[in-house]
User: What shape does this take?
Amino acid sequence: MTAVFTPLYDRVLRWSGHPRAPWLLGALSFAESSFFPVPPDVMLAPMSLARPRRALWLATLTTVSSVLGGLLGYAIGVFGLELVLPLIVELGQIEAYEAAREWFAAWGFWVVLVAGFSPIPYKLFTIAAGAMAVPLLPFVLASLLGRGARFYLVASLVAWGGPRLEPWLRRYMERIGWACVVLLAAALVYTRLA
Assistant: This one.
């Protein structure tokens, strides 16, 4: 079987040592919270591995960029929902978007806290928050806490594992990658059936 995730992991690990890698991480974190499908963990983890002493700084950069991107998603929900709703439908994410709206209606502020760990893409929560006029300050605070918890956890665990973790990650990257694909597919099936 051809390896898919290991070469990608190797490439990202090489990029993570580049002097401009933090800029790319910040841009990816910003974009993922409002419109881009790739989570920043794919860069944060290897960068924390390559620079364990800077892992917490990288987690901070990822969190702040993600929250700023979340504000763009919020603005899209407030001002441009009718423009992006057809795209959400076309991408097959309408059920996930509706689930995010239902969660906001039921739990409000607390949804944003857990959204960082949810199988539903975070960008759908940010757009739904804007569309439902969730108060901005609680949205920002919950985003900082929820997203920060996720990114600090990832960066800390990888930095703690350090160089001894790298061979293990590389050896199991295909299994980890395919497990993530299966989990994502299961989450999509669940949101369609729920």
